[in-house]
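User: Predict the structure for this protein chain, please.
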Amino acid sequence: MAVTRENFDRLAQARKRRPRWLQAAFDFARHRPLGAIGAVIIVVMAIVGFGAPWVAPFDPLSTDYAAMIARPSLTHWLGTDAYGRDVLSRILYGSRTALIVGFGASLTGSIAGALIGVASAYFGGRTDLVVQRIMDVVISFPIIILALSVVAILGTGVHNVIFAIAIPMIPRCARVVRASALAVREMPYVDAARAAGFGDARIVLRHMLPNVMAPYLIMLTSFLGQAILLEASLSFLGLGVQEPIAAWGLMLRGAAVDFAETAPWMAIFPGLAISLAVFGFNLFGDSLRDALDPRLRTQ
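Assistant: Here is the predicted structure, written as structure tokens:
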């Protein structure tokens, strides 16, 4: 179709009629197709996870001892495990567990880290020095080691796993947000807020925190894939989500290891689900970073 003045005006009017969020989604998908693929994976994962009661063909907790370690078939598309539970149904319900733990840990860790980072940059001086040294101590531990330590102290369970995964994320988000908040602290509107007599809490929450949302969102999306992988790792080691809750890490341990040669589907399909989820979050997070970071923006 030839690009004429009439066609150009028609396209411009159609663009204006679209909601702003929808137009932003179209632009994101057009400029960053890999990020759009990651977003589709996340949306599908959320739909099948929270819609599992209507999508899953079987109850993930029901056992069928007549169909133990059944091969993939028309009845059980991905086979069954050592207790006769349908693998597909447990994977669908496991996506809900992964999303709850992933988003819960990422939001908790990134929000706490953002508040600490902004407050540390705002107050500066000795407060900033002490806070950053504490962050250095926490960040010196490997993520999995620190998460294992917290779970060993608090015990297993969904809430404790969320807290254990969130703690290693706090210093990483705090340091990134602090770097941006140091520049925001010197802005004229922050000086004007101080001159107007606003309290420190109001300046931090109303004037500084909204202006460091770009690095915050980047850290949040990057943490999601890590949180899902950490949850699966902790569950595989027996220190995460416990039976009978359906979780991908639980599906990889125990009988899945014992029957790795005779029933490989018990480990292959949960492993693929973990890989696909982490891959989708990483794709979306990288594209969102490129879109929000002016130094990396190409479109």
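The mean pLDDT is 83.
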